[in-house]
Amino acid sequence: MKLYEPAARPLPAPGERIRNAMTCDVEDYFQVSAFAPYIDRDSWPTRECRVEANMERILAIYERHGVKATFFTLGWIAERYPQMVKRIVAAGHELASHGYGHLRASDQTRAQFDNDIRSSKALLEDIGGQAVIGYRAPSFSIGHANLWALEALQEAGYRYSSSIYPIAHDHYGMPDAPRFAFYPHGPDGLLEVPVTTVNMLGRNLPAGGGGYFRLLPYALSRWMMQKVNREDRQPALFYFHPWELDPGQPRPAGLDAKSRFRHYVNIERMEGRLEQLARDFAWDRMDRIFLDQKQARQ
């Protein structure tokens, strides 16, 4: 069994504009992994939820610019805001799973993970009324130590995952993984689609969103994604969270300096940057970019 079987994709014609994958991890500010030491999970139901209002702003941006996207949605959120999930589907976006309660895959046993991915899939399908074939692990928490999770996803009926980030990071990352879509267990199995990176001086640098998108000048992020389109002839994969558009969100007390910086840096600029990003690139759903239509319907 070859661990890394590259995904064969037809190259776009010279001059053809590449469609990139726009994705959003639908969770609220208090569910962020970095806040886990400061916010007790049992307090979630009593916290002010702001995800629905933030999602309305995101959907409005996409509507204005004709963007279709994939929304990796927590079951915990979908259960409380089923009408929001239905609005995602009605607008022509793809509904995908982010697990139920934002538990890292690396913190679960195989049995726990199996239950999580199956129950969240069933819940989202029941609410959204469409097949859920994509999954993203919270905090990109699939790596060398738990590659069994990819087998579990395939057995649970998922067609693709976006759970391995080929960078070095203090909380996640698998820097020796392929930079672009690959089949971990051969072309008849699950497709893994990493978030976009650029390789410079032998090191993969993050180029596909998250806190880096807020930290770096917009022009640099745009240049990196354009470089992937132009030189690698590959679609970029971008991700962000609804809370990143919300400078007015409650701020938990006692956060360490690193967590505070990562979470809030340039958060007030994010909505404008997302609007610009929607104008500067062509975007589509993950299933339509990375899976053929037969696979997408399965």
TrEMBL record:
NodB homology domain mapped to chain residues: 33-298
Matches recorded under InterPro entries: DUF3473, Glyco_hydro/deAcase_b/a-brl, NODB_dom, PuuE_HpPgdA-like, XrtA_polysacc_deacetyl
CDD domains: CE4_PuuE_HpPgdA_like_2
Gene3D superfamilies with a match to the protein in the record: Glycoside hydrolase/deacetylase
PANTHER family found in the cross-reference section: POLYSACCHARIDE DEACETYLASE FAMILY PROTEIN (AFU_ORTHOLOGUE AFUA_6G05030) (PTHR47561:SF1)
Name of the featured protein: DUF3473 domain-containing protein
